[in-house]
Design goal:
By secondary structure, the chain is mainly α. It is 72% helix and 2% strand.
């Protein structure tokens, strides 16, 4: 078996895991499966692309590649702007749609169907604005370098893996060590009781949207940097995101990341063993097996 599949799986798993973190937080605190999360990845990628073009036009020097990477300083700066715009999009959607449904005491299935409809609208709007033509942050070619054990990776790929590790570690520390993280865990456990003890549930919900949308933007940019940007990129990742979140255990940040890596590696090995046409089925098969054998996930708690 080609050891290069490990590298490909870890890279794909980094994107999936980072996106799944926002999905698992939303599910654990807001109690619904958010189908718009995949579209936040795509919108974040396109927001960043627009800012890159703006900065490159205003300050040409920012577009010069930072060796050994294929991108210039404009991309990291644009990611910050893309994260802000994606967060504003998520907060606006919650205020206009999800927040009103929660206030009316809507059933979970109603909120889920609303998120499905909003996902279709966001995806169509994105395609209308940017067209279906694939876009790229950079068209510079990189040569994969040996990293040991018969594996090779480009500097961009190693950057993506390193950035993912830093973001996941920082977020885990925030959730486990800070007052905001403790409030999020309390709301995830029992929103009504958390409110009685003086926790601002509305503020926790807003923080959840901020974290989820910001990470979705970064995941979208990572996918666009290594492959390409398309309006349907988030939709294509939606099933792997849900599979990773459920596999890791709802509400668990390390679990979502581990689930993403397992999904990514499984897809990469499936391509090597049975062919690329089965890649999309791997996430579905893993999701079904988890629901049948361990529905609480790896780090989830069993409900008695």
């Amino acid at each position: 078996m080609n050891p290069q599949a490990i590298v490909e799986g870890v890279i794909a798993g980094s994107t999936i895991g980072l996106g799944a973190i926002g999905l698992t937080l939303t599910y654990s605190i807001l109690r619904f499966a958010n189908f718009t999360h995949g579209d936040f990845l795509a919108w974040g990628a396109y927001f960043t692309l627009s800012i890159v073009g703006f900065l490159g036009g205003m300050l040409a020097g920012l577009g010069a590649p930072l060796k050994p990477f294929s991108f210039g300083l404009a991309l990291p700066l644009s990611v910050l702007g893309g994260m802000v715009l994606t967060v504003l999009l998520a907060l606006a959607l919650d205020r206009v749609l999800f927040g009103r449904l929660r206030a009316r005491g809507a059933e979970t299935i109603i909120i889920v169907m609303a998120s499905f409809g909003a996902s279709m609208a966001l995806r169509s709007l994105l395609e209308f604005i940017y067209t279906a033509r694939p876009e790229y942050y950079t068209k510079a070619l990189q040569i994969a370098q040996p990293i040991g054990f018969g594996m090779r990776a480009t500097p961009d790929q190693l950057f993506v893996i390193g950035l993912t590790a830093v973001l996941v570690a920082g977020l885990h520390l925030m959730v486990t060590r800070s007052a905001t993280g403790r409030a999020m865990r309390a709301v995830a456990e029992n929103p009504a009781l958390a409110g009685i003890y003086g926790i601002d549930v509305g503020q926790v919900i807003r923080v959840t949207w901020v974290i989820g949308a910001a990470l979705a933007c970064v995941a979208g940019v990572m996918a666009g940097l290594l492959v390409q940007i398309r309006p349907y990129m988030g939709f294509d990742l939606l099933l792997p995101l849900f599979a990773a979140a459920i596999l890791g255990g709802i509400g668990s940040i390390p679990g979502a990341m581990l689930g993403g890596l397992i999904i990514g590696l499984s897809e990469a090995f499936a391509v090597q063993i049975i062919g690329a046409e089965w890649r999309a089925a791997v996430s579905f098969i893993i999701l079904v097996l988890v629901l049948l054998l361990r529905p609480q996930g790896i780090f989830g708690r069993k409900v008695e």
